Amino acid sequence: MTMVYPTSFHPCLVLIIFCLMFFIPLAIEAKDVGFSVNLVRKNSQLRVSTKANTPESPINANLGHYLMEISIGTPPFTIHAIADTGSDLTWTQCLPCKNCYKQRNPMFDPQKSTSYSNISCDSKLCHQLDTGVCSPEKRCNYTYAYASAAITQGVLAQETITLTSTTGKPVPLKGFVFGCGHNDTGGFNDKEMGIIGLGGGSVSLISQIGSSFGGKRFSQCLVPFDTDVSVSSKMSFGEGSQVSGTGVVSTPLVAKQDKTPYFITLLGISVENEYLHFNGSSQIVAKGNMFIDSGTPPTILPTQLYDRVVTHVRSHVALTPITDDPELGPQLCYRTNTNLDGPLLTAHFEGADVPLSPIQTFISPKDGVFCFGFTNTSSDVGIYGNFAQSNYLIGVELIRHNSPNSPFYKLHELVRRKKSYAPNGAFTRVTSNNGDYLMKLTLGTPPVDVYGLVDTGSDLVWAQCTPCRSCYIQKSPMFEPLRSKTYTPIPCDSDQCNSLFAHSCSPQKLCSYTYSYADSSVTKGVLARETVTFSSTNDEPVVVGDIIFGCGHSNSGTFNENDMGMIGMGGGPLSLVSQIGNLYGSRRFSQCLIPFHADPNTSGTISFGDASDVSGEGVVTTPLVSEEGQTPYLVTLEGISVGDTFVSFNSSEMLSKGNIMIDSGTPATYLPQEFYDRLVEELKVQINLLPIDDDPDLGTQLCYTSETNLEGPILIAHFEGADVQLTPIQTFIPPKDGVFCFAMAGNTEGDYIFGNFAQSNILIGYDLDRKTVSFKPTDCTNQ
């Protein structure tokens, strides 16, 4: 998901490269320096062990998004929120919820948490989101909107979030700024309890936890879109999110005024052996023309590049594109009863070539249909969505002044730091949930399980809380703040409340917030502090105190009953990554999302700290273009190759830096319309099948009929310095049996997203301190 600002506000976002200023003190009750968060499908019961002594939190696919699980409050209350690198605010639906979308699980109740604390409207934190307003009670009320028209409104608060560790010991993070949504609308389903903003903004999870975990960096590895719901992948933060080793490629992050997105530069895309330049015939590519967004499913490319990519993809697919299914729209889709055998694409980022197999470039919206996981937009900035990110370990790192990678780093500091803590990590399981990914965390004291949508495109961690005046239906009980000993509402005059741009004071002087998403989803509630507990590979909980989250009391949108909120994994200070980063060596994490159609008994993982390291053979790295504190993880997409044909991002001479965001909370990849159209045309050329054109359910999507997996071309997302290969399993999804549709779409609104379909089976590491995003092809089902 991509967060949008009110038109009347013009944020000034400055990226600090070497020095991270962390504005929220977080207390840590463990000596771990990293942890992993497992990304699991919503129905997953599987818990896969990884590193020892690693905090963890489940994250899984959920209808194109990735749900990240964290615990918030005291006692811990578990929420599952969309991991979104394209936004900053971490929020959850909180009680009371006046106008909330239906949530299956109970909403977070700030009154039941002893660690919940509302942020006052006169605090600096209230102004972090730029839409904070004072309620009559002097609480920081916020409104957070997304490009999808989703909106969350509520109270900004500070709370304790708790992560588990591989040793079983909880790691509490106190003072986490989040949005307690009391009025939330948008395209949420009932499994989504909020959004975890993982962007580069000051309130994102990455920014808030950066100092606690050794820096603003993280990595992710998203499971493919169609991975079994029981399969999870991981997201890692801090030092454990380093992406290294054989196969690693890196691309620089490009700094822009908007700090939230992680901008990188995409030079072009190859379809098999044909290279498609981002700008067509032009040799000049604007820096930061893409941003990486785990909250946006499809990869969104400028229309001129998309059209060329599609054309070449079609030429490599020996099927006829679907043209008779109105539900698919103009997407490039094919019918096949097996996985689409599409071409291999390579995303050529600046300094990093990332191969994309069909599992990363084609998604199956319905049985027997696989659609190209890219779309287009009229804007010259695209989004590298989570479809293409799947099965890649992507690391994002922003270099701090005391980082060994900084020229200002001194050797004696390294020696001293190595003695101060053990090289531990934390992680959580993430499960796939119909295109989204749910992350499990335990919120409050006593702990309450919460499954939230993992969203690297937003910051706020939030869960539906009781009392919920207007909430979406959720299967599990909502979080009850009054029953938590660690729940503390944040006053409206606190800095945490002021960090949200849409906040106000409640009659009780609590920080009321409103957090909105691009899909019109909204969470409104009270910002609070809570203890969050994560599970670990050795079943020992990791408790993180004073995590700031949103207790959503009015939440609405396209949530399903499994979604209990959202886990913001963006770059802002309120995101889960920012709040816990300083506890684990740096603000970094990694995720590994399972494919959309993976076995439901498998799950992916989100890792934090030391556990989020993305290294080894096959790793490529692209620079984060997002500025300091910016929510979205913006990267630069230069183009997409369909087989050997390169489809450039745009036809203009300049390629904008940070033109696409990586969003785990958005299933499809959204590209500039002209880029998308060219991409689809190339896909049609390379796919030896006739596209489906007689199925009204498919609409205009590029879909094919196939009895087996669609044998589409390999797509390569060419980010700046990193070429990410996307197989058909990442670019075509089966919406129904025998149909495979291209998991990308065109966009004319200027917001481009690399969705979670493409992110599946890619270990993706985000390092906010080093300002990098790393990709590594990985079987996320075995993480």
TrEMBL record:
Keyword vocabulary terms for this entry: Aspartyl protease, Glycoprotein, Hydrolase, Protease, Secreted, Signal
Stretch forming the signal peptide: 1-30
SUPFAM superfamilies to which the protein is assigned, alphabetical: Acid proteases
Location in or out of the cell: Secreted
Name under which the protein is recorded: Aspartic proteinase CDR1
PANTHER family the UniProt entry points to: EUKARYOTIC ASPARTYL PROTEASE FAMILY PROTEIN, OS07G0603500 PROTEIN-RELATED
An annotated GO BP: proteolysis
Gene3D superfamilies, A to Z: Acid Proteases
GO cellular component term, pick one: extracellular region
Lineage: superkingdom: Eukaryota
Domain Peptidase A1 positions: 66-406, 437-776
UniProt cross-references to InterPro entries, sorted A to Z: Pepsin-like_plant, PEPTIDASE_A1, Peptidase_aspartic_dom_sf, Plant_Aspart_Prot_A1, TAXi_C, TAXi_N
Gene Ontology molecular function, alphabetical: aspartic-type endopeptidase activity
Entry similarity comment: Belongs to the peptidase A1 family.
Record organism: Mucuna pruriens (Velvet bean)
